[in-house]
Inverse folding.
């Protein structure tokens, strides 16, 4: 169990005033508190970007990695110590662009991680270029005549790739978002929480006002166990409405569950005197 | 005929891929080691699965074998190409075993060797086998000439094929016997000048590759996590880990790419287990990014880089030593790393094990380099001495220490540059490790003074390592007239070349660089004491020579370089020496 005061790193976030990242940070803190898990067992792994700085504003064990590489670092840490609650933060460029390969494979493996993507549909830290989730036609510094590609659909990709908890939240609804994150943390397996995050500086299209009008919560009657329904819902986007909530959920053994040698976490196994006589004998 | 003590017998088997040459080579080699003899086995093969031209060459002596020779005493030619390419390598009095029904219209240019037809295919069929069993018939015939212990050979066939069913083993044993009997009946096998005889009382020997020795060293050192992506010639390391995953309780992750590999190893190491990657130059290229993350977060990881000829795909299955500067300089910025290069299987074991101590004691990436020739050749060696491997995890602090040192300063400045480390999950040790520059608490900080303190502290770690790295190893007589300067797999061939040079009246010794980076401080003195330096390397530009010049100002003018994708040998070095300007024949 951890308190708000304990989670405070004493550092003041250097994000632009009004940035959606603040809402996500607050929701994340709240989620960590709500899980009731011990403070020192949280291990945060971040990519590079405005979003990647999140662990700096938090007092938890954390490692800030390279652009796009947070998921493999998190995977290694989780396999080394299955007792850690590993939470990964990063941007859409980080996770769905440069790190897209790792994203896919981490989901196939159903590594027990919670991946919170700060999806602002633009590159923030590098001052406003197109991102893999930018809408077609979106004009940015690197696409002054509008984006030509169609955007990546992270939720559909996650459902198709084997993620076992697929959700979308909105940085402007902290209560709802913190619940999604807390459930993602307690979920056994790969949990993706894609978060609609207004970038007040570089994205003047997908703004708070726009999300306020378009975002709606998946109804109570929605069944997240239905994969086909989840695919269908994941395709909804635009002025006509953007659903948030848990799109898909299933229970499947995690990667670590399939490894009998992890019944004791690797980090707890003694290494002072590993006897290899049998290995050598086999070579004779 | 040479006496047993001087025995030096090399047997080359050649044929297309997929015809069991490697397996026969293993049986022959293991039979020799079980007879108490020493062997060295190297293979040459192209990058394909079926067809092509593969050879296995087994060299047998009564004393340790440092490398291969360019000549052989016996050839088993399963195809025409083996005959054409290798008949010139056979020593006078040697034999070439071949199947005249298969290998037709050959030139047979050598008057001083015996061409012995063995109906390999016919006998394989007679034994109840197929074309794939020709190699076993050849093995039997070879045994008849050189005196390989048939009982041991049969036992090894059983051990090797036992899993696939006894019937198959029996068929193979029959095939070997038919080959043996045919040779004994039709040729004067007794007159063959190289005879293997058992040496009772010899301690049992392993037959082990450089790759396996490295993997074993890592396991002994307590490495629990390997992340790798297949790439010749490093793949056997991941295979070895995978095969022993459950028995040794460790995790081998076959990753989506080498980028994931290094980052997973960093994650595992950061979480507190000994972790490593293994790859070749191409994979290491992808890992140059992660190398810097390990250095910046001061996460101890071990990286095994097995060289093959580049650039790009290069010669995937051949050998070269051309990644030295790449490995020493990879990644942007200035930071400490340690680069060590074993020269044989024994060094592969001990130095890989020790690499984990370096990595944890100084919290930096350690790169252990190898090359195809070292990685995939088999060495015979007694069991390694486990007591020589101790585990030193460096400065890891626990709860009590942490309670007394709040707030925990992960990156605080110390004299030797090494800061306290904590295993995540430990109470009172919570901190941040950014890949941006940071203050001693781990908070991102761009203050010029903070930057300076951290840069200097990291470089002090480098200086601390430099004080400890051992001097280059010297082999052969002190005060020799010529010093061969080598690194990595060239060790064995260079040491053997000393005997050849001695015969020509040249007193030489070998200076083997093992720790390459930080450059050992003692090296300069040793180099300046030497009378005449000759650089011997498996590359085209003399990379060690360049490093020596960079670090000491000493320019080694005389060079013996090989860069045709094939390993250096004692004869090659002698030949190279003779053609040097100042060389004497
Ligand atoms: C290998 C590499 N390439 C490029 C960069 C520069 N870079 C830093 S953050 C970033 C993109 C940021 O966008 P996103 O991941 O969406 O995060 P945001 O800043 O929007 O939160 C880039 C390209 C880098 N750090 N490393
Ligand atoms: S650039 Fe955008 S994403 Fe980055 S801090 Fe500013 S508002 Fe937030």
């Amino acid at each position: 169990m951890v308190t708000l005061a304990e989670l405070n790193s004493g550092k003041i976030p250097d994000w632009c005033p009004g940035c959606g990242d603040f809402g996500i940070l607050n929701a994340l803190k709240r989620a960590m508190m709500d899980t009731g898990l011990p403070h020192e067992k949280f291990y945060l792994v971040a990519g590079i970007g405005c979003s990647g700085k999140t662990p700096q504003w938090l007092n938890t064990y954390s490692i800030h990695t390279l652009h796009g590489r947070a998921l493999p670092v998190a995977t290694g840490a989780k396999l080394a110590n299955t007792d850690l609650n590993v939470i990964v933060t990063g941007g859409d460029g980080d996770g769905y662009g440069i790190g897209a390969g790792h994203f896919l494979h981490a989901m196939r493996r159903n590594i027990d991680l919670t991946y919170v993507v700060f999806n602002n549909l633009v590159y923030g830290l590098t001052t406003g270029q197109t991102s893999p989730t930018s809408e077609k036609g979106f004009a940015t510094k690197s696409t002054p005549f509008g984006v030509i590609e169609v955007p990546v659909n992270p939720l559909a990709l996650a459902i198709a790739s084997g993620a076992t908890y697929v959700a979308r939240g909105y940085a402007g609804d902290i209560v709802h978002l913190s619940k999604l994150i807390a459930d993602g943390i307690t979920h056994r397996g790969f949990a993706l929480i894609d978060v609609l995050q207004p970038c007040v500086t570089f994205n003047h299209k997908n703004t708070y006002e726009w999300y306020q009008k378009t975002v709606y919560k998946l109804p109570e009657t929605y069944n997240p166990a239905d994969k086909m329904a989840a695919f269908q819902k994941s395709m909804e986007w635009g002025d006509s409405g953007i659903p948030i909530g848990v799109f898909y959920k299933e229970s499947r053994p995690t990667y670590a569950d399939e490894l009998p040698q992890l019944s004791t976490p690797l980090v707890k196994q003694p290494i002072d005197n590993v006897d290899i006589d049998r290995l050598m004998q086999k070579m004779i | 005929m040479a006496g047993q003590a001087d025995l030096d017998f090399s047997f080359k088997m050649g044929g297309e891929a997929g015809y069991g040459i490697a397996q026969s080579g293993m049986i022959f080699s293991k039979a020799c080691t079980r007879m108490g003899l020493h062997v060295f086995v190297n293979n040459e093969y192209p990058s394909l699965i079926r067809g092509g031209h593969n050879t296995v060459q087994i060299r047998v002596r009564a004393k340790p074998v440092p490398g291969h020779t360019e000549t052989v005493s016996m050839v088993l030619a399963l195809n025409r190409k083996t005959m054409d390419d290798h008949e010139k390598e056979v020593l006078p009095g040697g034999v070439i075993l071949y199947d005249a029904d298969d290998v037709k219209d050959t030139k047979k240019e050598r008057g001083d060797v015996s061409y012995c037809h063995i109906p390999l295919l016919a006998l394989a069929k007679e034994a109840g086998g197929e074309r794939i069993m020709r190699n076993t018939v050849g093995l039997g015939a070879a045994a008849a000439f050189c005196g390989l212990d048939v009982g041991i050979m049969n036992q090894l066939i059983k051990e090797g094929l036992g899993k696939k069913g006894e019937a198959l083993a029996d068929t193979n044993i029959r095939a070997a016997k038919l080959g043996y009997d045919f040779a004994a009946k039709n040729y004067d096998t007794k007159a063959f000048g190289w005879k293997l005889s058992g040496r009772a009382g010899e301690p049992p020997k392993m037959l082990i590759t450089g790759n396996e020795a490295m993997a074993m060293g890592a396991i002994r050192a307590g490495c629990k996590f390997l992340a790798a992506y297949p790439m010749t010639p490093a793949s056997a390391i991941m295979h070895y880990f995978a095969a022993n995953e459950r028995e040794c309780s460790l995790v081998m992750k076959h990753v989506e790419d080498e980028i994931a590999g290094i980052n997973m190893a960093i994650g595992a190491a950061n979480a507190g287990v000994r972790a490593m990657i293994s790859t070749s130059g191409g994979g290491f290229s992808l890992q140059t990014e992660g190398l810097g993350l390990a250095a910046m977060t001061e996460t101890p990881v071990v990286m095994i880089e097995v060289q093959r000829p580049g650039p790009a795909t290069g010669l995937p299955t051949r050998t070269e030593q051309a990644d030295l500067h790449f490995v020493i300089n990879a990644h942007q910025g200035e930071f400490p790393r340690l680069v060590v290069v074993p020269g044989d299987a024994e060094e592969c074991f001990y130095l890989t094990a020790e690499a984990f101590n370096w990595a944890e004691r100084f919290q930096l990436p350690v790169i252990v380099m190898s090359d195809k020739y070292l990685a995939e050749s088999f060495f015979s060696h007694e069991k390694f001495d486990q007591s020589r491997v101790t585990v030193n995890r460096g400065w890891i602090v626990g709860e009590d220490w942490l309670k007394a040192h709040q707030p925990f300063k992960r990156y605080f400045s110390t004299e030797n540059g090494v800061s306290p480390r904590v295993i995540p999950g430990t109470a009172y040790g919570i901190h941040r490790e950014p890949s941006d520059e940071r203050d001693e608490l781990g908070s991102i900080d761009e203050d010029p003074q903070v930057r300076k303190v951290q840069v200097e502290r990291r470089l002090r770690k480098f200086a601390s390592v430099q004080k400890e790295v051992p001097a280059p190893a010297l082999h052969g007589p002190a005060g020799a007239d010529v010093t061969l300067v080598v690194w990595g797999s060239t060790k064995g061939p260079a040491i053997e070349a000393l005997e050849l040079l001695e015969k020509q009246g040249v007193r030489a010794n070998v200076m083997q660089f093992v720790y390459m980076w930080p450059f050992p401080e003692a090296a300069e003195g040793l180099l300046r004491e030497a009378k005449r330096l000759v650089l011997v390397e498996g590359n085209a530009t003399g990379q060690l020579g360049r490093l020596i010049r960079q670090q000491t100002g000493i320019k080694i003018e005389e060079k013996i370089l090989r860069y045709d994708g094939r390993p250096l040998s004692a004869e090659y070095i002698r030949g190279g020496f003779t053609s040097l300007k100042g060389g004497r024949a």
